[in-house]
Amino acid sequence: MLGAALRKELLLQWRTRGKLMAVFVFGAAALLLFSFAIGPNAVALRTFSGGFLWLGLLLSSTLTLAESFHAEMENRALEGLLLLPSDPRALYYAKAIANWLQLALLGIALVPVMVVLYDAGTTRLLMLLLVILLGSAGLSAPGTLYAAMTAQLEAKQTLLPLLLFPLIVPALLASVKATSYAILGDPMGQARSWIVLLAAFDLIYWSLCGLLYGRVIED
Amino acid sequence: MDEVAVEVEHLARRYGRRWALADVTFHVPAGTVMMVAGRNGAGKSTLFRVLATAIRPDRGTVRIGGFDGVTQREDVRKRTALLAHHNYLYEALTAGENLQVVADHLGLSRDRVLPALEQVALAERRDDPMSTFSAGMRKRLSLARLLLQAPRFALLDEPYGALDPPGFDLVDGVVRELKRIGTTILMATHQWERSARLADVALVLEQGRVSWQGPASEVMAHEVRS
After folding, report:
1. Which helix (H) or strand (E) holds B215?
2. Among A25, A110, B149, B171, which is disulfide-ready with B81 (CB 3.0 to 4.6 Å)?
3. Which pTM value belongs to this model?
4. pLDDT averaged over consecutive 10-residue blocks of chain B (226 residues)?
5. A16 vs B contacts (CB less than 8 Å)
6. Domain that holds residue B61
7. Chain A positions in Cβ-Cβ contact with residue B52 (cut-off 8 Å)
8. Is the residue at B116 inside a domain?
9. Chains A and B: how many Cβ contacts under 8 Å?
10. Is residue B137 part of a domain?
11. Nearest-by-CA chain A residue for B150
């Protein structure tokens, strides 16, 4: 069942891939605006580059997460799948995995923009990749749940960030810290503990949200 | 034939303060085609959505194939298919892909997709995106989706809606075919005369209540009287 649901999600994402490009441009524009806010201070820009990257990704994520339920709602396709019947947990994990892949790709695509704008180059690319993968997983799991909750509301674009942002603060903080150590150096070896913390939050998010999803979309 | 397939007892469902279904009771024997008639807002679509377990009733009970519509939703869903106003299709996918999604979720072979499309005369459009389809073609594709499910209980809400005259004949053919294989069918429609020819029994809803039920052959006389 998960395989069938994931195939559908990836097919839908492929068909609407043009929208991902628009979201990337939005994220890149956000990074550019952050650099304007700091001004021509190369040290400050590089110091805060990890935080800016995650803020850019977080703002972009509200667009992709909300958009991922547009196709499910326009003809009540999600209800149609539930009535087949389909396992709500399989539908959730398929959607969350698809959103995770999309956010991870977006995060990876924003790294060169960050390097150019903030002079934030790094040789620890594998570590940065790991943090982006774990951090985007931390955004997509609760983000998918809340996007489902708000998908049928008129004020979904406002409510989704209002609900999502407070919940993902721990994962966001861990992502920013670990990214900063990847860019600025980690002489005390502190990045590891932030990455472990991020992985722990991911585990909690992915377990709990999968359990709650059925209630959210059925009741 | 006498086995009861659908049992509805004192069913009520409200939206906010308005009762869409006030007190509905009826039974449908297995293999029967029941026509559900009524004016706009009479409660037909709400009734079908409760029967399909898309929404829960506020009062009363529904049993389909012996399974409770609230506590045994999964069992009801395995045996029931709903042709609804919302077509349950993905705009970004092609006709063929939409049916493949259904086949994949039901664990069916994708080889069954093409015959289902052929049955609704859409085989030639299988690679076209849903977003290019007219309302009538979407209705045909929804019918193909229902046929793919091969349900024991089919709930057809306005099956003739948006269709052209050949489409009407197509629906008639689908209903006859489903009936031939023993499917119990409930059909909500404004095409009284046409569906009365297909149905065995009829039920008329009025403001969320059953105002008349009897043989389908007599429903036109009831309409004239009322």
Report:
1. strand B209-215
2. B149
3. 0.92
4. 86 95 96 95 96 96 96 96 95 96 96 96 95 95 95 96 93 94 95 92 95 90 67
5. 92
6. 4-89+150-225
7. 83
8. no
9. 65
10. no
11. A84
